[in-house]
Fold:
Amino acid sequence: MLRLLPPETAHRAAIRALPWVPACSVPASRRLRTVVAGLELPHPLGLAAGFDKNGQAWAALLRQGFASVEVGTVTPRPQPGNPRPRLFRLPEDGALINRLGFNNDGAEALARRLAGRDRGRGVVGVNIGMNKDAADPAAAYARCLAVLGGLADYVTVNVSSPNTPGLRALQQRPALDRLLAALAPLRAGTPLFLKVAPDLEPADEADVAALCVEHRIDALVVSNTTLDRPATLRSPLAAEAGGLSGRPLFARSTAQLARMAALLDGRVPLIGVGGIASGADAYAKIRAGAVAVQLYTALIYQGPGIVARILAELEALLAHDGFAGVAEAVGADRGR
Structure:
């Protein structure tokens, strides 16, 4: 029914309806447990940023079985985002294109929604960015971290959205070095993650890896949406501007994940994102080097039951290959 509505209308309806959706039971298995930056998770599957931009549905999403929910992206001040239409379904490709532009209610509004949160209900992270008219990017991110750091289980620094002018330039070494240095005094014990684009050049990937180690980043999220348009896309909307997510991103993001795993060599944990729609997809990310994974687009097409299905498939794959737990399978494909 939701897919009969325009994408953004359907999204707003889903956020409002989620508190009334029955909870989904997921496998309770020692084999699926994992740890990211000291955060103990019952299993490795989390919800990526972008679905619950304003922290309105994190509790309901945790009830659907996700081990973690990353809310945002949030900016210091509220902003409406880019003109509509700005979100497009590509069902033929199992994909989405968005050029939303960090539409959100701002850091203060999110802080009010997270205040008093029962942390025993599950892990909630916050994905932070900058307003499109920010004169000082480092100050914008610092403001978000100062307001939200104490309310989140972790904070992800998003320098990889393609829909805010100049944002991806923050992935270049001098800019990223300044940004991470500016955030260091504000961490106050909150794990700090970094999320990168799948379109980085090899030299930039090496710089990102080096800076993650130098600035003691707690986890690297690989990856955000891509500006690339694979020739295999079939949808008539494939030429729309914006970031492409979903199935067509899987191979590209997984290859980048493997490269970053080789560069970091266990010094920084990795979270794999991009095109996950099955237990086999999640398993491939883990074998490429991820200690945890996230999805978003597949939830739109398959509904919340996808969580239990992926976890059942993942547990069976781990057992088939003789792994007692996720940690044993992390990076198993390296060197092949």
The chain is about 35% helix and 15% strand. The mean pLDDT is 95. Residues 86 and 208 are 30 Å apart (CA to CA).
